[in-house]
Amino acid sequence: MRRLFITAVLMVVTLMTVNAQTALKKVYDESIDPMEQIDKALAVAKSDGKFVVCQVGGNWCPWCLRFADFAETNEAVSKMIGENFVLIHVNYNPRKAGGEEAAQKAAKLMERLDNPARFGFPVFVVLDANGKVLHTQDSSFLEEDKGYSEKKVLRFFKNWTPAAVKKH
Predict the structure, then answer these.
(1) How much of the chain is in helix, strand and coil states, percent to nearest 5?
(2) Angstrom distances, CA of residue 124 to CA of 4, 132, 144
(3) What are the pLDDT digits (tens) for 27-67?
């Protein structure tokens, strides 16, 4: 009887976790080439006088989806991003299931972005309009409880706007 109860509790917890993940909108397009995605974002950033922020992660990452939702629904954060950055969701799949070619593409992507995977996911890579990596942000420093802190996220973005970087 006790084993049945424990099994039932574990099933409920698993379903709650799966439902929480699937409730968030999938934002990573797994069908596009991330290198081309970055190049296109850089072209827009250059013409608009902005920087690019690559939110590296994947639809497999609940914290990645939480941040995407937070950045879209938090008015102050959304405004800060829209005025200063081209934010893209760069799909990265660290699993080896895609074969050798996929592993090589993933390695080239990480090399281009100065190997940000060491910080976990999501990880934010700020690029200037020419594609130079200016900063890599470990997202754990932006978290608060089971979500993200508006204050911490705004501080991060404010410190890496084109205007802030040009002052120094």
Answers:
(1) 60, 15, 25
(2) 43, 14, 17
(3) 999 999 999 999 999 999 999 999 999 999 999 999 999 99
